[in-house]
């Protein structure tokens, strides 16, 4: 019985911690937080690394041009380490390995924006999904 109470308390605290991370993302201004010129590459990449694992866990990770956000983050980390102006992202699409090349500033901004917006849209969807249901009073 004691073990059950402890396990329940731990699970509740973990779920509240995850919920607060999603709710925390909804309060962020994406333009300010992901501004590479104002904040620098490392800080913006840190924001992406903070929020993207939660997006992956919830199943809402962004994917653009066949590239998952985790691949953007990994490639940007490598570009920052090598002090390269361009980020080369390697990914698989339809079984073939492909590469894309982006400026490091742009790839960092994109990774940050994708990580934060995925959680924001997930939380927003919980509140507004009912508006899209037929019979809600709107005329289509």
Helical stretch tally = 6
Order of helices and strands: HHHHEEHEEH
Q: Report the major sheet.
A: 2 strands, antiparallel
Amino-to-carboxy terminus distance? 55 Å
Number of strands: 4
Gyration radius (Cα, Å) is 19 Å
Widest sheet: strand ordering: 1-2
Oligomeric description of these chains: single chain
Shape: globular
Global mean pLDDT: 84
- The low-confidence runs, each spanning 5 or more residues with pLDDT under 50, are 7-18
Structural domains: how many: 1
Strand-pairing-aware structural class: alpha+beta
Provide the helix percentage: 55-70%
Portion in beta strands: 5-15%
Descriptive overview:
The protein is an alpha+beta fold. It has one domain. 64% of the residues lie in helices and 14% in strands. It contains six helices and four strands; from the N terminus they run H-H-H-H-E-E-H-E-E-H. It has a two-stranded antiparallel sheet with strand order 1-2. A two-stranded antiparallel ribbon has the order 3-4. A hairpin with a 2-residue loop joins strand 3 and strand 4. Helix 1 crosses helix 6 and helix 4 runs antiparallel to helix 5. About 9% of the residues have low confidence.
């Amino acid at each position: 019985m004691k073990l059950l109470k402890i396990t329940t308390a731990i699970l509740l605290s973990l779920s509240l911690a995850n919920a607060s991370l999603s709710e925390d993302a909804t309060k962020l201004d994406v333009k300010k937080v992901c501004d590479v010129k104002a904040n620098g590459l490392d800080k913006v990449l840190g924001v992406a690394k903070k929020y993207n694992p939660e997006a992956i866990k919830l199943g809402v990770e962004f994917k653009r041009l066949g590239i998952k956000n985790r691949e953007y983050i990994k490639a940007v980390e490598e570009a920052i380490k090598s002090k390269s102006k361009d980020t080369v992202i390697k990914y698989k699409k339809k079984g073939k390995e492909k590469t894309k090349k982006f400026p490091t500033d742009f790839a960092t901004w994109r990774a940050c924006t994708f990580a934060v917006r995925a959680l924001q849209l997930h939380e927003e969807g919980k509140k507004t999904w009912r508006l899209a249901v037929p019979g809600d009073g709107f005329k289509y």
